[in-house]
Write the structure tokens for this entry.
Amino acid sequence: MPARYRVIIDRDACIGCEVAENHCPEIFMLSDGDGKCRVKPRYEARTNDAVSIGIIPESLLRCAEEAVEACPVSAIVIEPS
Ligand code: SF4
């Protein structure tokens, strides 16, 4: 079975700077509602005010890692799913 990874965005920490989306638009977007980052519906497992969680395939791991490294408030974590 192909590897899957869990992406977790701490939306309390997120400052809505758009850097994650700029680095990896396949996964990340800013929410219309509160202007903070969320996982796009295609990969989203759950989003609420505090957190957005997604499940991504290995093919998007590097993309997600670039967003993790670029986020100025370290609000994104990736872990094996
Ligand atoms: S880079 Fe970090 S702070 Fe900026 S929108 Fe993405 S999660 Fe939020």
